[in-house]
Amino acid sequence: MCGIAGLYNRRGDEVDAGLLERFCRALGHRGPDEQGVMHDGPVGLAHTRLSIIDLAGGHQPLYSDDRRLTLIANGEIYNYVELRAELEARGHRFATHSDCEPLLYAYREYGDTFLEHVQGMFAFALYDAPRRRLLLARDRLGIKPLFLTVRPEAIYFGSELKALFQALPGRPAVNPVGLAQYLESSFASGATTLVEGIERVLPGEMVSIENGRVERRTYWSPASVQPMEVDFEQAAQRFDGLLETVMREHMRTDVPYGLFLSGGVDSSVLLALLTRYAGEPVRTFSVGFAADSVANELPAAQAMAQRFQSCHEEIRVDSDRLWRALPHTLWAADELMGDYASAPTAMLAEAAGRSLKVVFTGEGGDEVFAGYGRYRASALKRWLRSLSGGGTGGFRTRGTFTRIRGHGLFNSELAEADRHWRAPFVAAWRETPAHWSALQRMQYVDLRTWLPDDLLVKADRMLMAWGVEGRVPFLDHRIVEFGLGLPDDLKVDKRSGKLFLKRWAERLLPKEHLWSRKRGFTVPVGQWLAGDALDRLETLLPANAGVKTWMHDDAVRRLIQTHRRTGRRAAALWNLLQFALWHRIFIEGDGQRPDASQDPFELLGN
Question: Whole-angstrom Cα distance, residue 76 to residue 136?
């Protein structure tokens, strides 16, 4: 797990070595173990490394035997053992035992189709010197991040926005489309980011830069999945072997690993399988509140830890600690997103990072096996919602601010951008095959938007900020294809979701655990935005430079006053507060890492 960045000078100019050093400094938290750079004429590559496999020999950049190909990569190639054997049989010779080195020879052997042979989570840059060609690629589900800036003089790329800020000619500027998407859905989506001029490389996308020209193509999409006609027993038989293969590949590492254990179905299944295949107790970590006044996951997690005799660590936090973690969490997230679980996830990562470099997490289980309640909305309810969000099938149509009719909050430019905030969801819905069911289409929309642009941002950035790699077996693309292709009646009924996975897991876990309602970890945002804190917010929020630029002061105050009377505007105020803090750190400030514990209002007031 690492950080990557680089550039391709379109005019053929030599690379500024100082810029590569600034890239490395900006991404140092992603790779605290070592750094490496390469510049060859107009192309420069920078890499920061978190050593996981081949600790002694896996230094990057990696070079082919004739040094015509150069690679920097972030992530893990899980089938590197099999891929290496396949390539060695074809005459290729390796210099290291790195999981990433096979990418060089797979490209040499198979050309632009080489990613069809690769299983993993990754973002990489591969430079083909004889052709003066730079290839960028992101894994199929978008587990690992990659951003792109195309300018007249050069094309820049990086693992995080922080890196690309080093290449911008001035201070970064807010993109109103990305801001509208964030305010309404709590994350910007698709290629759009919150920063003007910076785009995402999309999941399953490869970018080719040759002779200064940029070509983008999709090499994999879940839209290619064909529905299966199977009953439970047939599906379970297929899943047995598939999941074992995936788990054994994901467990390949030269350093110890652990598991974030929430007590839910997904992480409990992973604990059972890790314990079985490792043949020894697993290190597990759970987070919850020190007091019992708020629902949390500790009791369910503890029950699973005891069942499988894991080496369990509970991180007990209070509301004040979570609140004071907010500035650092926003810095770590890099992309602005309103996920309440970011700070708890960061605290898990901080605890695990004291002794581990790798943790497994259960991300993806709900999207792949249809666990969310929103997948069970009736056709009538979705039709009614579709009236306000055409082209979405009535799915993901309700924005945070569109629910507050007549709020008058946004200035004219942001209000115009807000008319189009649903565009990524509309595009994803329309990409799906006509013969798919509504359930499959809803899963697909989440797999293309919510998952890579919210949940996986949280999983990647919160962990990497503390030097920890996260592995997500349920998002191996083979598992995704299996889950998406299952018949609807194996996934949901009127009362429950994730039916197949729960039934399959009955051989591993108690039925009462699998079928009970998960309590979850409740972040007390409503408590934070009340009393004295609300008074301070009323003073500081309208005065923030970002808020003043894009919103009307009087409408912001009215929103706060409405929340004071009714308590019903917490989500809207939370998104505004996070934007104000993010703007203070990255747009007004220099992007420096805040303290791990800092009063958000003190940061806003500085």
Answer: 16
Tell me how far apart the alpha carbons of residues 391 and 370 are, in angstroms, rounded to a whole number: 21
- Cα 144 from Cα 460, distance rounded (Å): 7
507, exposed or middle or buried, with CB in 10 Å at 0-12, 13-18, 19+?
exposed
Residue 206: helix, strand or coil by DSSP?
Answer: strand
- Tell me which residue has tokens 């420069």: 44
**Low-confidence residues of the chain, pLDDT below 70?**
1, 54, 291-295, 518-521
Alpha carbons 147 and 172: distance in angstroms, whole number: 14
Distance spanning both ends of the chain, measured CA to CA: 35
The span from the CA of 284 to the CA of 297, in Å, is 13
Quick: pLDDT tens for 45-99.
999 988 887 677 789 999 999 999 999 999 999 999 999 999 999 999 999 999 9
Residue 228 structure tokens: 């299966």
Distance from C-alpha of 523 to C-alpha of 43, rounded to nearest angstrom: 45
Per-residue DSSP letters for 519-576?
A: ------HHHHTSHHHHHHHHHHTTTSHHHHHHB-HHHHHHHHHHHHHHS--HHHHHHH
Asked if residue 77 lies in contact with residue 120, where contact means CB atoms within 8 angstroms, the answer is yes
Q: Which CA distances in Å does 264 have to 240, 269, 296?
A: 20, 9, 11
List Cα–Cα distances, 217 to 112, 206, 222, in angstroms. Answer: 11, 6, 15
pLDDT of residue 516: 86
**Radius of gyration of the chain from its Cα atoms, rounded to whole angstroms:** 24
Distance CA 350, CA 356 (A): 10
Tell me which amino acid residue 268 is.
S
Q: What is the model's pLDDT at position 175?
A: 98
Distance in angstroms (rounded) separating the CA atoms of residues 428 and 391: 10
- What's at 267, amino acid-wise? S
The one-letter code for the residue type at 471 is R
Domains of the chain, CATH where assigned:
2-221 (3.60.20.10), 224-369+448-514 (3.40.50.620), 525-605 (no CATH)
Which amino acid, one-letter code, is at 568?
R
DSSP 45-64: EEEEE---SSTTT--SSEE-
Q: Which residues lie across from 74 on neighbouring strands? A: 123
Task: State how far the Cα of 531 lies from the Cα of 316, in Å rounded to an integer.
Answer: 25
Contacts of 579 (CB under 8 A, 6+ apart): 179, 182, 183, 336, 546, 547
d(CA 29, CA 34): 11
pLDDT digits (tens, 9 = 90+) for 92-132: 999 999 999 999 999 999 999 999 999 999 999 999 999 99
